[in-house]
Design goal:
Number of strands: 12
Shape: elongated
Distance between the termini: 61 Å
Low-confidence stretches: 62-67, 95-104
Strand order of the largest sheet: 10-9-8-11-12
Helix content: 25-40%
Largest sheet: 5 strands, antiparallel
Length: about 260
């Protein structure tokens, strides 16, 4: 059964702070003056109530070096603070981040399987002497040109969708330049350091990473990027879809005639 807890109060800068927690999700949501952060329970070292009206959540420091990061909210109800703290404590130590045990099939295996099916259809159509409006192999070659943009842009949208659902907030710090691109470093919930490339300059970047695959990270897509990438995505999907439909049509005609 899912347990929920919410706490509202005042932050260190005097602004409104709201903390949310739901068991089973494995994250704390912390909203401070419109900035919404997501922190995994696995990184929480301690939850404490001070003076009855102050709640502090102590998070493991960057690279596991002191000082620890402390999220604090003041002017809260003592009962609400205790209830929130107890809800988080009950999940600490038994709720971690679960990594994938296996490996998903690589793109090479998927491509090989699709190619084998297409070749089998071509051979069937050729052996049965089926006549089509356009040569099937040439139609497949043309349609396959849409696969690279479809896959590349599809991965971008897939990563954004995954990170919007389970992404963990982290601050990436500028580390230098590589090939005229700014290079940042951020630390995951287990203390490992990962790199992130961006064109955003030297300022720290607030991004989200996937706790199941910490190297997957994003600082979010700008509207022009989000909608601009729809063009190659739709073109690629149209070309691949037309190729598959024509291949299915050729197989159907071959098996039902002659």
């Amino acid at each position: 059964m899912s347990e929920e807890a919410t706490l509202s109060g005042r932050g260190a800068r005097g602004g409104a702070v709201r903390a949310e927690y739901r068991s089973g999700v494995g994250h704390l949501h912390w909203e401070d003056d419109g900035t919404r952060l997501r922190t995994p329970v696995a990184t929480v070292e301690e939850v404490r109530v001070l003076g009855g009206s102050r709640l502090e959540i102590v998070v493991e420091p960057h690279l596991r070096r002191p000082p620890s990061l402390v999220y604090a909210v003041d002017e809260v109800s003592p009962d609400a603070a205790e209830a929130f703290a107890e809800a988080v404590r009950r999940d600490m130590g038994r709720r971690g981040v679960h990594r994938w045990r296996g490996r998903a099939p690589g793109w090479a295996l998927v491509a090989a399987a699709v190619l084998a099916v297409l070749v089998a259809v071509d051979v069937t159509v050729a052996v049965r002497g089926t006549e089509l409006p356009a040569p099937l192999p040439w139609a497949q070659v043309f349609g396959s040109l849409g696969a690279p943009p479809l896959v590349a842009v599809g991965i971008v949208y897939w990563d954004e969708w995954v990170l919007s659902r389970r992404g963990v907030t982290a601050v990436a710090v500028f580390a230098g330049y590589t090939h005229q691109t700014a290079l940042y470093e951020y630390t995951d919930h287990e203390g490992a350091v990962h790199q992130y490339r961006s064109q955003r300059g030297r300022d720290p970047v607030l991004l989200r990473y996937d706790p199941r695959r910490p190297s997957r990270a994003s600082a979010g897509m700008r509207p022009v990027e989000r909608y601009g990438l729809l063009v190659p995505l739709l073109v690629g999907a149209g070309m691949v879809g037309a190729m598959l439909v024509y291949t299915g049509y050729g197989l159907f005609v071959s098996l039902t005639t002659g």
